[in-house]
């Protein structure tokens, strides 16, 4: 290390007043003074946002790089969900965690992360649908939502979280339809059977 530093110093012209003014001097060869890690660089444990239907939401802001802020959701019970085929976005309560590919234990713990499939209350969509579609038979006849109407009448829909609760402090996503809903049923057959039993009982 001393020899490297000596060679660097020898390469500096005598006319230059300091090391910083030299264009051929590489500071990477020096042992710089250690500095403490900045707050935005510190390693933090995962947020592990918990679903708490009966408790108020709890969030915790913190500093981020560049003077920005991040919001960590500690407890959550609702979010904004988009029904793409209806082109509508409504706020719905989250009922429970259905499927989570991040960790198999997250289902029992009720942890919500990006990509988690949750069961949401469909009453907000049911109210909107009844006021916008039931009075317009042409729209209802051309609609391809028949496979989701039983779920909505039942009072619950399946949605996928697309936001990052530990970064933005919200559990937002979209309602599952078509192939994504069928893929969920292939993974969780009990969801399909429970719907059939409920429809048969009625």
From TrEMBL:
GO terms for cellular component: ribonucleoprotein complex; ribosome. One of its GO terms (molecular function) is structural constituent of ribosome. Coiled coil: none annotated. One of its GO terms (biological process) is translation. Keywords: Ribonucleoprotein, Ribosomal protein. InterPro entries: Ribosomal_eS8, Ribosomal_Se8/biogenesis_NSA2. The keyword Plastid does not apply. It holds the Pfam family Ribosomal_S8e. Belongs to the eukaryotic ribosomal protein eS8 family. This is 40S ribosomal protein. It comes from Desmophyllum pertusum.
């Amino acid at each position: 290390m001393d020899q490297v530093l000596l060679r660097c110093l020898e390469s500096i012209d005598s006319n230059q007043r300091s090391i910083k003014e030299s264009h051929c001097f590489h500071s990477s060869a020096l042992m710089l003074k250690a500095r403490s890690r900045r707050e935005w660089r510190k390693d933090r444990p995962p947020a592990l946002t918990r679903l708490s239907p009966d408790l108020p939401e709890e969030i915790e802001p913190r500093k981020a790089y560049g003077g920005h802020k991040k919001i960590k959701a500690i407890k959550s019970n609702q979010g904004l969900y988009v029904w793409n085929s209806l082109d509508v976005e409504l706020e719905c309560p989250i009922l429970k965690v259905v499927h989570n590919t991040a960790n198999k234990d997250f289902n029992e713990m009720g942890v919500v992360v990006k990509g988690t499939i949750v069961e949401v209350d469909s009453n907000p969509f049911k109210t909107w649908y009844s006021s916008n579609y039931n009075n317009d038979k042409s729209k209802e006849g051309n609609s391809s939502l028949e496979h989701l109407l039983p779920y909505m009448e039942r009072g619950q829909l399946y949605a996928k979280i697309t936001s990052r609760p530990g970064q933005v402090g919200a559990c937002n996503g979209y309602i599952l339809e078509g192939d994504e809903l069928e893929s969920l049923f292939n993974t969780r057959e009990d969801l399909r059977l429970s719907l059939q039993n409920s429809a048969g009982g009625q």
